[in-house]
Design brief:
Blueprint: H1 6-14, H2 20-36, E1 40-41, H3 53-62, E2 64-67, H4 73-88, E3 115-118, E4 152-157, H5 164-170, H6 173-183, E5 188-197, E6 205-208, E7 227-232, E8 243-244, H7 256-263, E9 272-273, E10 281-285, E11 290-292, E12 301-309, H8 311-314, E13 317-318, E14 328-329, H9 331-351, H10 374-378
Parallel strand pairs: 1-2
Antiparallel strand pairs: 2-10, 3-4, 4-5, 5-12, 6-11, 7-10, 7-12, 8-9, 8-11, 13-14
Helix pairs in contact: 1-2, 4-5, 5-9
Length: 390
């Protein structure tokens, strides 16, 4: 069921001045098109215990799928508690090293990128050379309301080191089974983070495709740059959510400047929003054209983002240098970065002992020695320096 966000749609459209009517209709039409697609439902399996073929076919066709009710109420409570604990420890402002209680702020002594900020309702990446210039156009930047802060948190990288609840969600056995089905039993991790899209403040993310390394690979296919899971703590809507162009993951690198020019605006006509309820998890192919508008509505979005690759896409490949420093990913590098999967499996097993844990083939010999506790959680500090960014 789609949440009634009519007030947020009206509020969003009002920021667009003479284009308010067109923006409102765009949001409404996109919402309707999104809900008409046959690419949502619970995770279900065939008689052999494999992910059902209708899910795989829909994902291949559209490049995304919404798995409903993956994160149950008990786990959502855990996640929301961790989110609050982390937010209480955020720096008082961009650049500060202490939180509101005078404690060292979250990530203040990390080497790896952690909390990222932006001007409210801005598009900080669009039209820049940041992230290898993948964000080719700048989206409309509404003027924030009076009293808005100078900067707002937009992304927390390496989230598994800060949140045991996010670490446990990472090891959801059904989600890992999907990763195995798409990328083989030796699938590799990519990167994890939290997208923060606060109501009335959240920044835009310009239209783009993820992935840099394999566009000209002779073995290019629709899955060569991997995928992201996007777990929704509060849900996502046409106003605050990610929009995608269905099927664009299969066509190679897209000239987004030309798409915008043809459309006559940033409102790409073939795009649809990823609409989720709390606890839903979307899978998003990294080659899909996607982006999100500034959150001028009344509902916040908090997305648990974590992705996976085929081992062949990263083994002995030099990284793109976006999520971590440039490195060549040999087998030892990949195995060390994959240890977080085994640790997450143990953490989840401790929290949900009645659940059948996922068995991750590359760590079968080490799994019993990978024990989650406060010490191993602390040892995850800066683990994202080894993100497999391609």
């Amino acid at each position: 069921m789609v949440k009634d966000i009519s007030k947020s749609i009206d509020a969003c459209a009002a920021y667009y001045g003479d284009d308010a009517g067109a923006m409102k209709q765009y949001l409404l039409d996109g919402q309707q098109r999104a809900m008409s697609l046959p690419n949502r439902g619970p995770i279900h399996f065939d008689n052999n215990g494999a992910i059902h073929q209708d899910i795989l076919q829909a994902y291949s066709t559209y490049g995304f799928y919404i798995f409903e009710n993956v994160i149950n109420e008990e786990e959502l409570v855990d996640i929301e508690a961790d989110i609050q604990t982390m937010r209480d420890n955020f720096p008082t402002e961009m650049g500060a090293v202490t939180d509101a209680m005078g404690r060292p702020a979250l990530g203040s002594d990390n080497q790896a990128p952690t909390l990222q900020w932006a001007k409210p309702l801005s598009d900080p990446l669009g039209g820049t050379q940041i992230a290898n210039g993948r964000h080719q156009v700048k989206l409309f930047e509404p003027k924030p309301n009076e009293g808005a802060p100078q900067a707002t948190p937009v992304y927390l990288g390496g989230s598994l080191q800060f949140s045991p609840a996010c670490l446990r969600a990472y090891a959801n056995p059904s989600l890992l089974k999907i990763a195995e089905t798409l990328h083989g039993p030796d699938f590799a991790p990519f990167h994890e983070g939290l997208f923060i899209k606060d109501a009335g403040l959240g920044a835009a993310v310009s239209w783009h495709q993820d992935g840099d390394t394999h566009w000209d690979n002779p073995d290019f296919d629709e899955n060569i740059h991997g995928f992201n899971f996007m777990g929704q703590a509060y849900g996502s809507t046409a106003v605050n959510g990610v929009w995608v162009i269905p099927g664009s993951h299969r066509v190679g690198r897209v000239d987004i400047v030309a798409l915008v020019a043809e459309a006559g605006s940033e409102r790409l006509p073939d795009a649809v929003p990823i609409i989720c309820n709390p606890g839903d998890v979307a899978i998003n192919n990294r080659q899909l054209v996607h982006g999100s508008f500034a959150n001028t509505g009344y509902e916040p979005r908090l997305t648990l983002n974590f992705g996976f690759h085929r081992r062949s896409s990263v083994l002995n490949v030099t990284g793109a240098g976006i999520h971590a420093d440039v490195a060549t990913f040999d087998a030892d590098f990949i195995k060390k970065r994959s240890m977080v999967i085994g640790l997450a499996i143990d953490a989840r097993k401790q929290r949900f002992p009645d659940e059948t844990a996922y068995s991750y083939a590359p760590l079968a010999a080490e799994q019993d020695s990978l024990v989650w506790n406060s010490q191993s959680q602390a040892a995850l500090k800066d683990y994202n320096l080894m993100d497999l960014s391609i």
